[in-house]
Design brief:
By secondary structure, the protein is an alpha+beta fold. It is built from 23 helices and 23 strands. Strands 12-23-15-16 form a 4-stranded mixed β-sheet. Strands 3-5-6 form a 3-stranded antiparallel β-sheet. Keywords: Actin-binding, ATP-binding, Cell projection, Cytoplasm, Cytoskeleton, Motor protein, Myosin, Nucleotide-binding, Repeat.
Length: 715
């Protein structure tokens, strides 16, 4: 019957200290309320009395603690226990903090996210921010909602996201305040005042709030009411048992406790198989050393994916791993806790959130060059295609086609990666109300246009230019007939292509120009349009070799086309079908508007070179935009097998019925086709966006594009 602390030592054992606590056999109040509600027809008025009894007792415990200079800092339903005499006890002082007149406030951000006060959360980032014992009052207010609604506010969010939402949102309330008394709602509102300096103390709440201010006779009546309901619980189905105390610890390489869960109940048989390091956010003590150790240990086991809260961390293995096949995709069609972290799980989770909440979702891919972002994006698309179509092969083939084309025009070799994406890509996948893919839309941003004119050293220009040179410099028959013979001879003769790196040696590229134009043909690009694409690209190659010379006359300003580069200059004129004089003027002259008049100015050699480079960048940028337009046009017209069904937008989504085949968006023989239509607008559609973002970059020479890329990553 001893309760307290005592030492145990003898000649054969080391000294040990034992903490002996009272057994609260009924268990947590939050669990007890759920059990009573399941097995009994619990009246709303009686439930409110039981809540008032539990909160009053907890407030008395907090009043005693605060008077003793202790703040609990982790008040919640699972830490409020019921004894066999139906008294209320507040437990678990593992993160409690001391305060005094000399040090009345603390600044440690600790607790359980759903119950943490805004001022406690703020201390994580604002190191000069402080809080006092009234943080426990906020936690008690959240507990009051938990006991009434059955769960704490924001319980559907990940704990990490809760820390962002609590300071931004207004104080929470009961889900349906009309079901409860005014005193209950007023008590919660008093506890959840966001300005903690205006929040009442435990002592004030006990005296000023009618919800918890009642005499000892009422306390006895409420205790007896709790006893009566508890004793009615069915012994066959839901029998209240003593909560088994179990201390679960995981030891790292340095023998430090990293995870402590004193209360573990109803553990499933497979729980011991789940590695706690699958999600590093679940670990109590996480620092840089622990993070690196965990990731390295998992990587050595070929576990390249690790969760950190809502974030999936992926390490590029630089080798093939059999974890991206269809069998793995099928496993991750449902969210299961026993599955290892995977990019497929992210796709499924986001898809479910979109369908359940009817809100657009976004997946952001970020990392250094060569970290595997593009591969991860392809896996995301593949899983979403399976979720949103069932027969994903057709859509996957189209998306593979898209990626091949985008890599040709938007990727280049850098010092870190031979196939680095040099543009940002946003892919919007639109779904019908039944979760089937309607169409796909692609957007690009931050195209590294500077690379067109500044490829040097161990970096290269965009892949498409080398595909052109590799084809025409080696295929002397010029079978495609997409470029005139004279320009073809120029390509064979001149090797110093400035934009592509000096003295290009004609090394074969892995890309085939014929294959690329076959892809363009599949995208419904006409022969004339293909010829125009080749003309623009070849013109840019020649444009890099256009040089300038100063006028030979003494003191005459301006410059002209260098005679040595006239073959390149003339090739550009013929390819783009532009006038000789106009082309010369556009490079060697510039026009200024002043007071409504146009003033023509002769360019210096440096200014003419800047104009030439700007022309090359503009040509390539406009061509890249047109490629994006062609892809979007293709996806809009080719995904006709997935029409949008016009239905009442208020109708709820029945996901189970859809996956069981009871609902289908595909029209069947005999259906009234007037019920089906395609719309060009996005109204009524849900979407998932996949943002493939640049990683942080720093080169020997950093352009405006690197500034934009790095700012985007910092945000």
């Amino acid at each position: 019957d001893f309760i307290g602390i005592f030492g145990d030592c003898d000649a054969f054992h080391a000294q040990r200290i034992w903490f002996v606590m009272e057994l609260c056999s009924i268990g947590p109040i939050s669990r007890l309320f759920k059990e009573i509600g399941k097995e009994n027809e619990l009246k709303q008025s009686d439930k409110e009395k039981l809540i008032a009894y539990a909160l009053r007792s907890t407030l008395q415990a907090l009043k005693y603690l605060h008077r003793s200079g202790i703040m609990h800092r982790d008040v919640k339903g699972s830490h409020i226990l019921v004894t066999e005499d139906y008294d209320i006890k507040l437990i678990d002082f593992g993160v409690a903090g001391l305060f005094s007149k000399e040090r009345p406030k603390r600044n440690s951000s600790v607790g359980t996210s759903l119950w943490m006060a805004p001022e406690v959360i703020a201390c994580a980032n604002q190191f000069d921010y402080l809080f006092d014992e009234r943080c426990d009052i906020w936690s008690l207010g959240i507990t009051a909602i938990e006991l009434g609604d059955g769960e704490a506010p924001l319980a559907n969010l990940h704990p990490t996201k809760v820390l962002f939402e609590v300071p931004r949102r207004p104080p929470p309330t009961l889900k349906d305040v009309t079901e409860w008394s005014e005193n209950y709602s007023v008590f919660i509102a008093a506890c959840l005042i966001k300005d903690y300096e205006q929040r009442p103390t435990a002592e004030r709440l006990l005296t000023e709030q009618d919800f918890v201010n009642f005499d000892d006779a009422t306390v006895k009546a409420y205790r007896d009411l709790l006893r009566n309901y508890h004793q009615k619980l069915s012994t066959s189905n839901v029998k209240s048992k003593a909560v088994e105390l179990e201390l679960s610890t995981v030891i790292n390489d340095d023998n430090d406790v990293i995870n402590k869960n004193p209360w573990i109940a109803n553990i499933s048989k497979s729980a011991h198989l789940i590695d706690p390091e699958n999600n590093l956010a679940n670990l109590d003590h996480l620092n840089a050393q622990r993070l690196i150790q965990s990731i390295r240990r998992r990587f050595n086991k070929s576990l390249i994916y690790t969760y950190i809260g809502d974030v999936l961390l992926a390490i590029n293995p630089k080798q093939y791993l059999p974890i991206d096949n269809l069998n793995f995709q099928l496993k991750y069609l449902k969210v299961r806790q026993d599955l290892l972290p995977h990019v497929f799980a992210i796709a499924t989770k986001v898809y479910n959130q979109m369908m359940i909440n009817h809100q657009p979702q976004c997946i952001i891919l970020s990392g250094e060059s060569g970290s595997g972002k593009t591969h991860a994006a392809q896996n995301l698309i593949s899983e979403l295609a399976l979720l949103g179509f069932g027969e994903q092969q057709a859509l996957e083939n189209r998306l593979v086609t898209m990626n091949l084309l985008l890599e040709s025009f938007g990727n280049a070799q850098t010092a870190l990666n031979n196939n680095s994406s040099r543009f940002g890509k946003l892919l919007d996948i639109f779904f019908s109300e039944y979760g089937t893919i309607v169409y796909v839309q692609l957007s690009e941003f931050l195209l590294e246009k500077t690379r067109v004119v500044l490829a040097s050293g161990n970096t290269r220009n965009f892949h498409i230019f080398y595909a052109i040179l590799s084809h025409f410099l080696r295929d002397h028959s010029n079978p495609c007939q997409l470029i005139d013979q004279e320009s073809f001879e120029l390509l064979k003769k001149y090797k110093d292509y400035t934009y592509l790196g000096n003295n290009y040696d004609g090394t074969l590229t892995s890309l085939s120009l014929i294959d690329l134009f076959q892809i363009l043909k599949e995208l419904n690009v006409t022969d004339d349009e293909q010829a125009s694409i080749l003309a623009i690209l070849t013109s840019i190659i020649h444009l890099g070799n256009v040089s300038f010379q100063a006028h030979t006359e003494i003191n005459e300003p301006g410059c002209s086309i260098d005679e040595k580069s006239l073959p390149h200059f003339n090739a550009i004129r013929r390819l783009l079908k532009i006038d000789n004089e106009q082309f010369t003027q556009s490079l060697c002259q510039s026009s200024l508007m002043t007071r409504g008049e146009t003033v023509t100015k002769l360019n210096t050699i440096a200014e003419a070179q800047q104009t030439r480079d700007a022309m090359a960048k503009s040509l390539y940028s406009r061509l890249f935009d047109w490629i994006i337009f062609v892809l979007n046009r293709y996806f809009r017209t080719e995904l006709t097998y997935q029409p949008k069904l016009v239905i009442d937008p208020r109708k709820r989504y029945d996901k189970d019925a859809y996956h069981n085949g009871q609902l289908s968006i595909r029209p069947k023989q005999g259906d009234d086709m007037n019920k089906f239509k395609r719309e060009d607008s996005n109204d009524g559609l849900c979407s998932i966006s996949i943002l493939d973002l640049f990683g942080f970059e720093t080169f020997d020479y950093n352009s405006y594009e690197q500034l934009c890329i790095n700012i985007a990553n910092e945000q």
